[in-house]
Amino acid sequence: MAGTLWVGTRKGAFALHPDARRRGWRLSGPQFLGHIIHHIVQDPREPKALLMAAKTGHLGPTVYRSADRGRTWREAAQPPAFRKAEGHEPSEALAVQRVFWLTPGHATEPGSWYAGSSPAGLFRSDDAGDHWQPVAGFNDHPMRPKWAAFGTPDGAFLHSILVDPRDPKHLYLAISVGGVFESTDGGAQWTPLNEGCAADFLPDPTAAFGHDPHCLVLHPAAPERLYQQNHCGIYRLDRPARRWARIGTAMPKKVGDVGFPIVLHPSDPDTAWVLPMDGGTVWPRTSIGGRPAVYRTQDGGRSWQRLARGLPARQAWFTVLRQAMCADRQPRTGLYFGTTGGDVWASSNAGERWGCIARHLPEIYSVTYAH
Amino acid sequence: MSCVVRIASPLRSYTAGASSVAAEGATLEEVLAHLERRFAGIRFRMIDEQDHIRPHMRLFVNTTEACELSASVHPGDTVHVICALSGG
Question: Which of A58, A77, A85 sits opposite B50 (nearest CB)?
Fold first, then answer.
């Protein structure tokens, strides 16, 4: 099966269906027109199953579930929600504003899922996303209010929830303007994991937390290898080390190493792609100089190559959000990204050449591949 | 005790398209609980887990805005669920 490229937008969900050679794409949808769709994720343990993180402008956040590859959807019976605060702790009376991120659980735990929210919260389901429970070890951690003290203008997002394929109890997560955190006991205890990351917007550049990871990824074939696209650079960490190495310093100086997504090759831990954006002055977060380009490393970040064939050569001010770029698992890796201007771009040859496969969609929040 | 609840269009996927439904309850909390039993999931889209009315929702009993779920509802009242439109 060729698969489906799912596109979550500010106004609904769309799907792009490739032909056998990934040259022609058929757009279907919208589903849930008018709903804000932050993430659509396939269950690798049950490939017909998908979860969708949704909200409408006025109504509360929820999760929809599909058991038939996205043809039909049912709402979760109990969407992610924080514990109801006791009377004496009104300052911690948190309410989920957005379900922002979805991650399938470990391969040995069928039906398990994690969700991240704004304000920063972690939730788990053990019944394929129908009922969600707060992960108390994180949400009630005495440091959580400090870890998630700032957030972004759109809220303090908890994202990039990672499950170590070797150990279901080994978890990572990231909070925008909060940092990267690790648990080795299934989420009961958490510790910051930010050493080596720059945080030049903080008064204390050596702070243990408060950093701004935009996207954190773990290589499934080499789970000791983490990459991070941060507000302050691109980083790599090879565990058990705890100090991140800034690999973005090898990017061209005129381009810099700011962006939102970072995407890994499905089998080669040394290959990754980023899409740099302008982080200067007032942080426009658009393609550098109006000339969008993907950059690829094939040596773990020691060097980067510009991949821009087929992309606009000038006056194209793309913004690509952290969930809006992905790879497929075809022998010749397909890469995909969606812009906040509503265009979807694809490469069927690992970024060597790009073509636009959908235009005029609403603001794109996520692009994910379902195999 | 029966009242009428006017359902805003974003919530009508829960009421099979009905713009107006009957409900029971002496307070707004009870009316919403009755709605939830009939239309599972509808309450959480209006009321968060701390029992606060969501920021872009407004609830009225007849013509009086109800800011708390303890607001009284009487037989024959009309409860309006309003989505406060804003932005694009």
Answer: A85
